[in-house]
Amino acid sequence: MTLTVHGIGVSKGIAIGKIHIFNPKEIEIHQYCIPQQHLEDEIDRFQRALVTAHDQLRQARAKVPKHSSVDIVAFIDAHLIMLEDSFLTRGPVELIQSHQCNAEWALKLQHESILKIFEQAEDPYLKARKMDMEQVINRIQRILLGQPALSVTLEETAFSKNIVLANDLNPAEIILMHHYGVVALVTESGGETSHTAILARSLGIPAIVGLRHAPRYLQNNETVIVDGSRGVLLLGGDETILHYYQQRRQAQKDRRIALSALKSAPIVTKDGVPIILQSNIEFPEDMRTVKEVSSEGVGLYRTEFLFMNRSSPPDEEEHLEAYLQVIRALDGQPVTIRTLDIGLDKLEGKKVERPLASNPALGLRAIRLCLKDQKLFKPQLRAILRASAAGQVRMMIPLVSSFQEITQLRHILVEIRKELKQKSQPFDPDLPIGIMVEVPAMAICTDLFAPCVDFLSIGTNDLIQYTLALDRGDDAVNYLYDPAHPAVLRLIKMTIDAADQCNKPISMCGEMAGDGRYVRLLLGLGLRSFSVNPESFLEVKQIIINSQLAGLTHLATQILETGAHADIMALLERLNRH
User: Fold this and answer.
1) In terms of CB atoms within 10 Å, which end of the chain has fewer, N or C?
2) Is 578 a catalytic residue?
């Protein structure tokens, strides 16, 4: 009998192999007293453990394939930076001295203090940082206890051609497993934005997360099938099922080859309507993938990476160099740089003088934070203006919800332009300024705001969760996250129509734009400019060039007038066959 276990598919692909349950030995920490005369020796033992942890992570970093996305290196670098944080370098040392306790116990006490800080916020990003810190501390504890690292305890045969099942995995473990030839990853915890999910996508490993209590049903060396596209793990499949998935796996390989042939094709619908299709990036190094798919430029350059995993914000020159790397790689093609889009709770090293917000997504973040802390904002604005002299640059502001924010921004830009002129630093005086439509208030009032800016871009990730009043990172309610909800679709249609009436360019850069299920629907709603992750680029391009706009509008209108989810899905399936 075939057993089917459902989770969250976070990295596409099909894998067939034997399960290897990765369950590192639980760390048991005991307290004992260190005589006064031996305290320095104990501190030295702790500091040697920090050095060893650094060495282990650097070795893992060296195993990262050269062709891989920079995401992977960035995660390991984040752990390396955490090893240098005073929470870990000085905190346990002070506890060893004040409590006269062993290093393991001091680190345990410090771990508990750190967890209290993280527990004040339930933001998905902060949860990821909490997991990072736990993984770093566990690494140090294992070194102190004399427990060997993963690279020593597990041989290549444990992973080669196998499917790993674990409660959770840290970046270094994933790198090593990939190095040893793992074919798929399955974890009990995690979500679409977890490190396992992001790294699996970067490495091209099929992965399912959120498979709660999976070890109850699975044993080592059992043959299973992992369908990362559908978030399904199958156990006990017969020859017919096995053959079906082998065929699907081959079909996916053939599809990737076929899509690569579309790179040079013009992005025009069957009835001759040109469509703009660009890429979203997070790091300058992502430009390699952008060039590989022959993207028409970058429609969303997220700049948050510049602010993360550091004790102080980046200066103007750091910003400028990162932007120039992308501009040079684009060789004349356009780039839209989005200003900082995180909250105060996510800026490491930033002193927070007020309690952390109970819901950071609705608090001081993005343009709200930037206008409140202009010392953080102005270096980025100056760098974007200076970068605009080197290529086709646009600046996009996230989470705008009021005229006051636009007015304040323009006043700041007037001051910065004067400063740059006085220093004889070149910039584009006509740098286009745009806003993201990701707050329902902005979507409803697009006709009022559009005349005040040069362009707009719909950010569906936030627009959907704000419209439907849910946290998509919350396992209890994320099933309600629905891009095809009538309210969401009506806000998107309202925004597109208002921008068109004001003769202002509008695009979509949210995840919905790169989801093949919704591309034709968006075309039918009037969208003519998409910006998607490079991994989705060719798939979206294929859908566009195989679409005929005549007829899509009628079906899209029908969907807008339909309330029941099942009826919407039926119409959507019909539209996608059009």
Assistant:
1) N
2) no
